[in-house]
Specification:
Helix 2 runs parallel beside helix 4 (43-51) and helix 5 (68-75) runs antiparallel to helix 6. The protein has a domain at 1-90: Serine Threonine Protein Phosphatase 5, Tetratricopeptide repeat. The protein has 238 residues and is mainly alpha-helical. The chain has helices at 5-12, 15-23, 33-40, 43-51, 68-75, 78-86, 102-108, 112-120, 135-142, 145-153, 160-170, 174-184, 227-237, and strands at 60-61, 65-66, 191-198, 204-211, 217-224. Helices cover 49% and strands 12% of the residues. It is built from 13 helices and five strands. A hairpin with a 5-residue loop joins strand 3 (191-198) and strand 4. A three-stranded antiparallel beta sheet has the order 3-4-5, with helices on one face. A two-stranded antiparallel ribbon has the order 1-2. ANK repeats lie at residues 29-61, 68-96, 98-130, 131-163. Keywords: ANK repeat, Repeat. InterPro entries: Ankyrin_rpt, Ankyrin_rpt-contain_sf.
């Protein structure tokens, strides 16, 4: 049995192989498998690894340290978030001093259901990252009105920074803004397209995609359109 067999099976979502490797003596708490399963949203494998003894706060030690809960929150994998929290994951743990918590990642990504799950398990909405942002200011900048409302309803302080960020974006042409941001990171010859989609909890999200000349997706830039509503929400809570 190779050391990385369990990591590969967890990343690929091969639950039968994960089960076989654990039965054959693979160590569930080695760095990597739980994190990779969390990134990919393989909730069944996450629960399998946790039941076998993986620590819910076990960091990955591959290219960069990462926490399973932060990864799942970033990608909006609610079932994985709940599995980790059920196993005792610390909702306020950071991947490094001053780094973003899982709640920061959820708020910045417009992940309403994950935001609510973390708040219901005691995540602190007023913690700041090294840039001085709370989850509320991350959501305000993103234009995620439903997430801002959820944070406020769970006791987040309606801080001046969040209000300033919302005001700053309220007058922008969001479609032009995301197109410009995407273009800054696009390689020569890449194509930038923009679409609108419904966000979690209602509202509209504007998404700019960068694709190479072969049509492969290279990056995405997203902003919500709820900045004006967020200004009203924050002003009403001050």
């Amino acid at each position: 049995m190779r050391e990385n067999d369990l990591l590969t099976a967890a990343m690929l979502g091969d639950s039968e192989e994960v089960r076989r490797l654990l039965a054959a003596g693979a160590t569930p708490d080695t760095p990597g498998p739980l994190y990779q399963a969390a990134v990919q949203g393989h909730a069944g494998i996450v629960r399998m690894l946790l039941a076998a003894g993986a620590g819910p706060d076990r960091e990955s030690e591959d290219d960069a340290e990462g926490l399973p809960l932060c990864a799942a929150a970033c990608w909006g994998h609610l079932d994985v978030v709940n599995a980790l929290l059920d196993a005792g994951a610390d909702p306020d743990l950071r991947e490094a001093p001053g780094a973003m918590t899982a709640l920061h990642w959820a708020a910045a990504g417009d992940r309403l259901a994950v935001t609510r799950a973390l708040l219901s398990r005691g995540a602190d909405p007023d913690l700041r990252d090294s840039a001085g942002n709370t989850a509320l200011s991350r959501a305000a900048e993103r234009g995620s009105a439903a997430v801002v409302r959820a944070l406020l309803d769970h006791g987040a302080t309606p801080e001046a920074r969040a209000l300033d960020l919302a005001r700053r974006h309220a007058g922008l042409d969001i479609e032009a803004e995301v197109r410009a941001r995407a273009g800054e990171r696009a390689a020569e010859g890449a194509r930038v397209s923009v679409r609108r989609e419904e966000a979690e909890g209602g509202g509209v999200r504007v998404v700019a995609e960068v694709r190479d000349d072969a049509g492969r997706l290279r990056s995405q830039t997203q902003l919500g359109t709820g900045h004006a509503e967020i200004v009203r929400l924050l002003e009403s809570r001050r």
